[in-house]
Design brief:
Blueprint: E1 11-16, E2 51-62, E3 64-71, E4 80-88, E5 97-98, E6 103-112, E7 115-123, E8 128-138, E9 145-149, E10 151-153, H1 161-176, E11 188-192, E12 197-198, E13 206-207, H2 210-217, E14 222-226, E15 228-231, E16 235-239, E17 241-242, E18 251-255, H3 262-273, H4 300-308, H5 336-340, H6 350-353, H7 358-370, H8 379-389, H9 395-403, H10 409-429, H11 432-443, H12 445-466, H13 473-490, H14 494-503, H15 511-530, H16 532-543
Parallel strand pairs: 9-11, 10-12, 10-14, 13-15, 14-18
Antiparallel strand pairs: 1-3, 2-8, 3-7, 4-5, 4-8, 6-7, 15-16, 17-18
Length: about 550
């Protein structure tokens, strides 16, 4: 039988099947001995040196001799791999192992590039479960670790191979340089694996729902650049990067950004892949939750994680290192205008934005209403913060902004963010005007199409100039309707929750709204029953278990 390289079906060769005589019955065919660990001279050996990690795999029910091949990107020919096997208790790997009447024998362990193979024998007349525990120790890196990264882009996104190489080079520079006292120089470099690929047509340009994010993260390994991200653990705003905390491979979602900061965004999200959470004790940290030109500091623990690379397999999440999911220790700037100038990698943090009041909202309304062109790059943060503040004085301005004919990628993204955050505004101010507008837009295809028409024309012109695929008017209209659906879910009223429920089966709504309403209904239920603060706490927790 030829080897099958799929992770959960890698038992590829039945070498022999035997029945052990006398295996039936309850009598144990062995003697038992117990010994205490001797800690004197020659007892315990020195700690293993290098980057070590463990994994338990359920190989299913088997008997006889098998060659079991486990594919694991973090294993290579230099890895030291130790394996133990036994009969598995029912209920999955976390239920543990036990010693029964069957004899399990491990004959060989052979690490290879990209995995490890073992030869086992299970002496029992019928198939029984086998669990294998793997301890992998990779020798300490003595030179520069090279990470090969596959780069993908959505067909609507312009990203050349030269630009990808520049960003990958910046990732390495950020880690390799010893910039300040607390910074640890980390010998990791990143190189492109082949040509920049175009993502499958099944992956949308805008990540607006949990299903969209799943489609993106499962579209192969690597860095995947899309038009916009408005979901990372929940509906969000102005998200420029999102990645699982702990991953089997490089698996990063990102958007195009300021050229000087894209390397930071990619290496920050790759840090999540390596098991790192956010760190808020140093605003210069790479893993700080916002972008900054001086965010180039990694501490010793983070350096070790980057050198080890992604450690996980089969979706298991490692404990996040130093994760401050609730932005603990961060303080909002006194001037709200300084706050909205700060790009937050995974969206504007409601914990900080909601601390501002009506006087701050008036400052932001001045920018939004009187000089939006001057502050276009901050529009997403401006409208999100206005929603989080929750003053009803912003309701009309936000609705007018969504209805305006203004175009551009930053503008259209901000319009969608305004729709989501109108829900937060309604939650805090009980604005019926906000709820009514959201309900109308979510269910009225004609209104959504009319509001999306100016942006669709812009997309056509931009595509003709750059050669990328233009997003259709229908796609853009559906985006607005989906954003309105999530805004409704966040508004926190029982009537709004019922409207969201009805949208799940509304034949007159966009199909994408029907799908999004299923996710939005769960959010609405949480917000109604537990309140907005508890919802955002739960969202932050989910974010770190993608």
């Amino acid at each position: 039988m030829a080897p099958n390289d799929r992770l959960d079906r890698d038992a590829v060769m039945s070498l022999d099947t035997r029945q052990r005589a006398g295996s039936s019955g309850n009598a144990a065919p062995w003697a038992e001995a117990t010994a205490d660990v001797q800690t004197g001279s020659g007892g315990l050996q020195p700690a293993l040196s290098g980057n070590g990690f463990t994994y338990r795999h359920d190989w299913g029910a088997r008997r006889g001799q098998w060659l079991l091949r486990l594919n694991w990107g973090e294993v290579d020919t230099r890895s030291q791999v130790f394996v133990s096997i036994a009969e598995g208790a029912g209920g999955g790997p976390d239920s543990g192992k036990f010693i029964g009447s069957a004899r399990y024998t491990l004959h060989n362990v052979a690490p290879r590039a990209g995995g490890v193979d073992i030869w086992v024998n299970i002496e029992w007349p019928s198939d029984i479960s086998i669990y294998a525990d793997y301890l992998v120790v990779n020798p300490a890196v003595t030179g520069t670790r090279t990470v090969s990264v596959t780069v993908h882009r959505h067909s609507s996104v312009l990203l050349s191979e030269a630009e990808a190489d520049r960003i990958l080079g910046d990732m390495g520079t950020i880690l390799q340089n010893d910039d300040t006292g607390p910074d640890v120089a980390t010998a990791v470099q990143f190189v492109r694996n082949g040509a920049v690929r175009v993502l499958p047509a099944t992956v949308p340009a805008t990540i607006a729902t949990s299903a969209d994010l799943t489609a993106l993260l499962t579209a192969g390994s690597g860095v995947k650049v899309v038009q916009a991200i408005r979901w990372c653990g929940g509906p969000g705003d102005n998200i420029i990067g999102c990645a699982p905390v702990g991953s089997a491979n490089v698996n990063v979602a990102a958007v195009r950004f300021d050229a000087g900061q894209e390397g930071l965004i990619w290496v920050h999200e790759y840090g999540h892949n390596c098991g790192l959470g956010h760190r808020t004790d140093d605003p210069r940290a790479v893993m700080f939750p916002s972008v900054g030109s001086d965010h180039n500091v990694v501490n010793a623990a983070e350096s070790a994680a980057y050198l080890a690379g992604p450690l996980n397999i089969a979706g298991k999440v490692l404990p996040a290192s130093g994760c401050n999911c609730d932005m603990q220790g961060l303080q909002a700037p006194a001037d709200v205008r300084d706050f909205v100038r700060q790009p937050w990698i995974e969206g504007v943090p409601w914990e900080l934005a909601s601390q501002y009041g009506e006087a701050d909202a008036r400052k932001l309304l001045d920018w939004l209403v009187n000089e939006p062109e001057k502050h276009e790059q901050y529009l997403g943060q401006i409208v999100a913060t206005l929603g989080y503040i929750g003053s009803e004085i912003a309701t009309g301005a936000l609705i007018d902004f969504v209805r305006s004919p203004r175009t551009g990628r930053a503008v259209f993204n901000a319009k969608n963010i305004a729709l989501i955050r109108l829900g937060d505004l309604a939650n805090r101010s009980a604005s019926q005007a906000a709820v009514d507008f959201l309900a109308q837009l979510a269910g009225d295809i004609g209104l959504a199409r009319s509001l999306a028409a100016p942006q669709a024309a812009f997309e056509q012109l931009d595509a003709a100039r750059t050669g990328v695929t233009a997003l259709s008017a229908e796609t853009l209209a559906a985006e607005l309707a989906v954003s309105a659906t999530f805004g409704l879910a966040l508004s926190g009223s029982e009537p709004a929750r019922k409207t969201v429920e009805a949208l799940k089966h509304d034949p007159n709504a966009f199909a994408s709204v029907n799908q999004a309403a299923g996710e939005a209904a769960q959010i609405a239920d949480t917000v109604v029953r537990k309140g907005r603060s508890e919802y955002y706490r739960m969202k932050a927790e989910r974010r770190h278990h993608l």
